[in-house]
Amino acid sequence: MITSIPTPTETTEESIAYTTLYNGAELYRTMTQEVFRKENRVLDRAKTALDDLHTSGESVNPAFSSLIKGYEKLLRQSHRLVTMGDRMQQNLSELNRELGVSEEKYRGIFENVTEGIYRCGSDGRLIEVNPAMATMFGFKDSAQFLSAIPTLQALFCNEEDYARYESLLVVESVRQFEVKVCGPKGLSLWAEISASAMHEEGNGRHAHLRSGVVGVLADVTERKHMVEEMCRLARTDSLTGLWNRRYFMEVAGREIARASRNKTQMSLLILDADYFKCVNDNYGHDIGDKALVVMSRLLLDSVRDVDAVGRYGGEEFVVLLPDASRKAACYVAERILKNIRRTKIEHGKGAFSMTVSIGLASLEEEETLDGLLKYADIALYAAKKNGRDRVEIYSRSECPCSVDEEGSEASACAGREQ
Questions:
Q1: What does the radius of gyration of the chain's CA atoms come to, in whole angstroms?
Q2: CB 119, CB 106: distance < 8 Å
Q3: Which PROSITE patterns does this chain map to (predicted)?
Q4: What is the per-residue pLDDT across 331-353, written as a single tens digit (0 to 9) for each?
Q5: Residue 327 neighbours by CB distance under 10 Å
Q6: CB of 197 within 8 A of CB of 175?
Q7: What's the confidence (pLDDT) of residue 100?
Q8: Which tens digits make up the pLDDT trace of 41-79?
Q9: Which is the CATH superfamily of the domain at 116-226?
Q10: Domains of the chain: which residue ranges?
């Protein structure tokens, strides 16, 4: 008699469900092996009975023989299917294990990395942020962050920056996009964003639609300030804070090229502190440095914001006056002379005043920066030679302009063509 595979009882089903949570694959293999052993015993008994009938010479129903052969074939095929199922179960278990490991790694990175990580939906709303991003903007945890800032766009200080970010996402992934972002209570910081869009899987018209965005946001405020400070130090004189000679020459070169291109006026002043060696000898180099700092402040106070002031070297300074005629430059030079002359520089035992000599040259057609500096230096030498505390003008005309103490135009020339 052929026995069929017994239907599992309710208790057996509960046991399988419970054990599967911990060792389901092993239990499954054990049960299937037991079932096949029982079925093989049944098949062996049926074959033995058939052989006994043949041996005794009794007639055998052909249907019985056919049934045994069919059951044997069915048992072989069932065994193959179970073996295939076992392999699939093993592969699935391995995939689940690897998925668990990957999830654990992702969570470890997500929770502990110092950079902010965010995930947005297709509508731009923030779905998830890590603790580092919440802390970056002054929140206690991720939930508090998401409650206060629902979208990534809300972090951008400038709408144009967000539009640029979105356009990069459409064309390609965003890589090291530096932007200023704003948080609550006036918080702002410089951030570097890298992000990529996720798209719908499958075919059809929704296959390429964006399903979300995953990105990393790093706080680069300190680095930004360091770079800016390095640039400032590379451009400025460490004592006076004015442009150093190298950067002044760079700025002046650009301005002269612009003036020549636009056919606009421009003038240049070179200043030198009178008898500055005596200041160092009589009061010390620390007081001499103080005097240079005071002179630098007076120079900045005497010119416009668009004018460029630099320390040319030692006690020499240069002032570039864009869009300034020779006459306008004369007024600026006289104002500088007056402001420096009436300023007292204090030291331990009192105070002293200083004067400067100034050489002025104005840009003419096809003039170069080197030529302008050369002519202003010649005029400065003339100012030193003619008594100091004065301005001399290098001019190709017979009589360059001059201004008197009150700032009105003088009738006689204070300088002569050099």
A1: 45
A2: no
A3: GGDEF (PS50887), PAC (PS50113), PAS (PS50112)
A4: 999 999 999 999 999 988 889 99
A5: 16
A6: no
A7: 75
A8: 877 787 787 777 777 777 777 777 788 778 778 877 877
A9: PAS domain (3.30.450.20)
A10: 10-111, 116-226, 236-394
Torsion angles phi and psi, residue 401, rounded to 5: -70, 160
DSSP 3-state percent helix, strand, coil across the chain (nearest 5): 55, 20, 25
Phi and psi at 190, nearest 5°, equal -90, 135
With 80 as the cut, is the pLDDT of residue 2 above it?
A: no
HEC letters along 359-381: EEEECCCCCCHHHHHHHHHHHHH
Instruction: Quote the pLDDT of residue 1.
Output: 38
Q: How many CB atoms lie within 10 A of CB 319?
A: 28
Residue type, 371: G
- CATH superfamily label, 236-394: Reverse transcriptase/Diguanylate cyclase domain (3.30.70.270)
pLDDT in tens, 194-243: 999 887 765 555 556 778 899 999 999 999 999 999 998 899 999 999 99
Q: Which of 209, 338, 347, 204 is nearest to 287 (CA)?
A: 347
Distance CA 183, CA 137 (A): 6
d(CA 60, CA 239): 119
- Residue 219's DSSP bridge partners are 191
- How far is 226 from 179, CA to CA, in rounded Å? 16
SS3 396: coil
Do you know the residue count of the chain?
A: 418
Going through 230-355 in order, the beta strands assigned E by DSSP cover 266-273, 308-313, 316-322, 344-347, 350-353
Strand order across the beta sheet in which 210-219 lies? 126-129, 116-121, 210-219, 188-199, 174-182
